[in-house]
Structure formats: C-alpha cells, structure tokens
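Need Membrane protein's 3D structure for a figure. Predict it.
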Amino acid sequence: MERSARPTEVVPVTSPFANPNRSGVPPRLPTPPTGWPIGSYATYEEAQRAVDHLAVEDFPVQDVMIVGVDLMLVERITGKLTWSRVLMTGAASGAWFGLFVGLLLTLFSPEPGVTVGPVLTGLITGVFFGLVFAAVGYGSARGKRDFQSASQLVAGRYDVLCHPKSAEKGRDLLAKLAMRPVNPGN
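Structure prediction for Membrane protein:
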C-alpha cells in the first residue's frame, strides 16, 4: 500500500505578549498573565516605580506587565445610614438629574433663552422621584445594611513579569533600583 503525502500544516507561533488583533492593545478576552518574574512588590506604587525605572533606562516596557496576586475586596465603612441621610441623598441626586432634564428641555423649547418653567419643573420632579426611589430602596432592605461603604480591589503583592527575552536585563535593572534609597519626592 502506498501512502499519500499530505502537505504539512503551518501553525504560526505567537508570543504570549502579542495580540493578534492590534499591537499595543491588550487582548479583549481575559487571559492569564505570562512571562518571567523580574520583581515583586508589596504595593502597586512600588511596582509602578519599578516599571517607571525600566522606562527611564530605555528598557522595552511593552514586554512588561504588573500582576496583582492574592486579590482581596476591601469594603471600608464610611458611615451609618439613617432615614434622613438616605432621603437627603436621594433628593440631592434627584435634583441634579431633574436640573439636567430641565436644562435639556429649555434647549428644545420654542421660546428663546432659558425659561424658568422647564428647569423648575425638572428640578421638582427630580427631587420627588429621587425621594421616592431612595425611600423604596432603603425601606426594602429592612435594616439589613444600615451603613455606607466604599469598595476597593487590592492585591496582597504585585509582581512585575517580563517577556523571557528581556527578563535578565530587567532583573539587573530592578536590582540596581532596589539598592538605591527611596526618595519620597521622586
């Protein structure tokens, strides 16, 4: 039996740092980070300082990425919620929205100039609906969340990864940076 020869398929080899869509643009789909670690820092500010140092030293920073490791969601409590605070906040946000709508109505009004009627109507309507929505939202929680907070995503550490072809040079440059004293004004 004779075997027929098949043409071999050519598969392009791509870099994990390359984006097949456009260069210099991060991939659209979430992708795990790749590269060799060249530095690890306790804060994002320190990792950013390291990459800034690499940029000053004419290092190809397009081969570098900062990766937050051990992610945590930190919710800082900013205050206690009360009915008066909820209603005041609702009225204020409704007033801003109503004022915006009222000003838009005056732009499309057949009368020249800014008239008070649409602005005042928008403002009053906005305050009313802001109060209603805030009261319904807070009342439906039934005391299960009587505080205000601000959430932030933080990492336990920040690793600087680099394309393998430049990793050794990057490590050397960051080692020199680590030997320098930290200047708060810099």
